From TrEMBL:
Keywords: DNA-binding, Transcription, Transcription regulation
Domain of life: Bacteria
Gene source species: Chitinophaga barathri
MF term (GO), any: DNA binding
Family matches, as SUPFAM superfamilies: Winged helix' DNA-binding domain
Protein name per Swiss-Prot or TrEMBL: Transcriptional regulator
Pfam family, one: HxlR
Domain HTH hxlR-type: 14-116
């Protein structure tokens, strides 16, 4: 019986690990989530996105948008106007990332404050040692 429980626990662990790896595979890199967050305020054209997502190169943005479109998070809309207008928008499926993005935002805020607090503490300790 114990061996079966061990196998079951290993299977669940393996399944959980696979699920996390799948999610990271789809959302890997430093740009995908910022692009999704940028589009959450509404449709944007390529140049608008590039201005919103600071520091991203045009070639990288193009590649990331193609991958996001391939994975069903972004829709590329082409308007037959002169000049041709192309907009990017989030799909309904991208809403499934809401809890993930909110959790990352909350954790990122907490982590940043932790690091700042540690730096303040070290600075105060150094100042106290220097004052002695």
């Amino acid at each position: 019986m114990l061996k079966l429980q061990t196998i079951s626990a290993e299977w669940e662990s393996c399944t959980a690990l696979s699920a996390v790896q799948d999610a990271l595979y789809v959302l890997h890199g430093k740009w995908k989530l910022p692009i999704i967050v940028a589009l959450s305020s509404g449709n944007k054209r390529f140049n608008e996105l590039q201005k919103t997502v600071k520091g991203i190169a045009a070639k990288v943005l193009s590649h990331e948008l193609k991958e996001l479109e391939l994975n069903g998070f972004v829709l590329r809309k082409v308007y037959n106007t002169t000049p041709v207008v192309i907009e990017y928008e989030l799909t309904d499926y991208s809403n499934t990332l809401g809890a993930v993005v909110n959790s990352l935002r909350e954790w990122g805020t907490m982590h940043r404050e932790k690091i700042r607090s540690q730096l303040r503490q070290k600075t105060e300790e150094r100042a106290a040692v220097a004052a002695e």
